[in-house]
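Self-study notes.
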Amino acid sequence: MDQQEISRFLAETRIAVMATINRDGSPQLTPNWYYYDGTQLTFVTTKERIKFFNLRRDSRISVCIYDSPLASEYIVMRGRASIREEGFWEDARHIISRYVEPERVDDYIERWKSQPRILVTVLPEKIYTRNR
């Protein structure tokens, strides 16, 4: 896939599976909503999740986004994650808007603001793809 095909694939509403590295070196996987702007991938999580602690200790991350249910097409990104703890609510709005009805977005934002949320940005160092 070229960059345009990657962006088109990632613009569809899919779930990203994030892989971080546990303290003992084993992988830790979690599904997440995401937004991809053509250059970087962002997602929101809380400071209570294992992936937050893992990324704070070791910023390496892999992300797999696949075509459900067969996974005959997929994209895997490897890179480093950066964490932003403030001033990210417009980014969060982009993410939430991809997954919920427009009339529910503000409710999600308000609920998320009451939780210890962070924004994670992944700048891919390597992208692997598979298409049918």
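Second protein, same conventions, sequence then structure:
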Amino acid sequence: MSKVIAISNQKGGTAKTTTAITLGHALAEKGKKVLLIDFDPQSSLTISFGIDVLCLEKTIYNVLVENGVETPIKDVLIHTAIENVDLAPANIDLSSAEIELLHEFSRESTLKHAIKGIKGNYDFIIIDCPPTLGLLTTNALTAADGVIIPIQCDYLAMRGAGLLTKTIRKVQKKLNPDLKITGILVTMHDTRTIHSKDVLNEIKSTFGNLVFNSVIKYSVKAKEAPVSGETVLSYDTSSEIAHAYRMLAEEILNHEQ
């Protein structure tokens, strides 16, 4: 049974895309078949694979606005250079999807219906959400079994996570009662600063057992890897951040058992 995980935080710059692509790679290293869905009009996930978004004829946008009929999701999938990892790409067209879906029946469940026919082909489907709490994010949460919330080790970023948890509760109540918070992932932790250490302790105090043991430290390597069309697991395979994401994959696999 495939597990669908949304990576979501309405604040930008929390390492959502880095987490989606690196976690996907780490799960694939463990023999899992993974589909990554780029659900952000900024297309950072697609660009991270070295794909020219201007040359894409069909993307996840077409799947959404055509209700998976004219363009089923299988027709937009790209086999990536990472073994066992496929990608449903995005481009700027996705930014108009929320408006086009506004008057559609069951608009919040469009993605859920779109992936229904391919779920059996993958062990994990990971959705890289946009930094908003709009209809795209609602679609992702409605389609997901769980949500990972990356929180940058910053006081304001931590405070903003409360808005997302409220949205998750609304989705649980009205659209997807089976949705769970898979975990809170602390990212961009800078061990050199007292502020970062204090925020890490506050996150653990606030969210308790929901916080993953894996902590993603601030890393220049994570920023350099997409320039080469790689993930940090291949770009700097023995680095601390690569180790942390492999440990995160282990935690998620243990969580799903």
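Instructor comment on the second fold: The CA atoms of residues 184 and 208 lie 9 Å apart.
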